[in-house]
């Protein structure tokens, strides 16, 4: 299967990138790089893709396992190298679950399945970065 994305220059430092879903994403540089900051930064977008990919897996498993979760968020903290080309050499992915009836063992299994088996973006990141996975439970 092939994904085909078209990314069109809008002038200055802004681009619009299509997605197979039919939605578009605006990409822009910050003012320090000649942009207006009116879009997402490419490297940061990679972290959103990582969290989104794994988040979709976990959300699907939460529903399949009929788990009660009031709130679920993923914090992604990445270290950028200092030399060009700058890339992420280490990434911490924190899964935060909030609820009054959290089944920690099953949530752990859901995260493990995403990290080790399902998330293709996680596998891509594994090729160039050291990954650290943390799960935090916030009981109400």
Question: Could you explain how this protein is built, in words?
Answer:
Its EC number is 1.11.1.-. This is OsmC family protein. The N and C termini lie far apart (44 Å). The protein is built from three helices and six strands; from the N terminus they run E-E-E-H-E-E-H-H-E. By secondary structure, it is α+β, with helices and mostly antiparallel strands. A hairpin with a 5-residue loop joins strand 2 and strand 3 (24-27). The protein has two domains: 1-40; 42-139, GMP Synthetase, Chain A, domain 3, CATH 3.30.300.20.
Please count the beta strands (DSSP E, at least 2 residues each): 6
| Helix and strand pattern | EEEHEEHHE
Mean pLDDT: 97
What topology, given as strand order, has the largest sheet? 1-2-3
CATH superfamily of the largest domain: K homology (KH) domain
Gross morphology: globular
List the domain count as a whole number.
2
Structural class: alpha+beta
Main beta-sheet strand count, sense and barrel state: 3 strands, antiparallel
CA-based gyration radius? 17 Å
Low-pLDDT ranges: none
- Portion of residues in beta strands equals 25-35%
CATH class of the largest domain: Alpha Beta
CATH architecture annotation of the largest domain: 2-Layer Sandwich
What fraction, in percent, of the residue positions are helical? 25-40%
- Terminal CA distance: 44 Å
CATH fold description of the largest domain: GMP Synthetase, Chain A, domain 3
Number of helices, counting only DSSP H or I runs of 4 residues or more: 3
Question: Any descriptors?
Answer:
single chain, 140 residues, alpha+beta, GMP Synthetase, Chain A, domain 3, three-stranded mixed beta sheet, 3 helices
């Amino acid at each position: 299967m092939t994904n085909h994305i078209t990314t069109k220059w809008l002038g200055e430092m802004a681009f619009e990138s299509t997605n197979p879903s039919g939605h578009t994403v605006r990409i822009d540089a910050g003012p320090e790089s000649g942009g207006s900051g009116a879009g997402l930064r490419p490297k940061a977008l990679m972290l959103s893709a990582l969290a989104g990919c794994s988040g979709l897996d976990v959300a699907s498993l939460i529903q399949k396992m009929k788990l009660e979760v009031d709130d679920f968020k993923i914090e992604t903290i990445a270290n950028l190298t200092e030399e060009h080309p700058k890339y992420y050499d280490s990434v911490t992915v924190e899964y935060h679950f909030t609820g009054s009836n959290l089944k920690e063992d099953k949530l752990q299994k859901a995260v493990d399945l995403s990290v080790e088996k399902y998330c293709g973006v996680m596998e891509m990141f594994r090729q160039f970065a050291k990954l650290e996975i943390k799960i935090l439970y916030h009981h109400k």
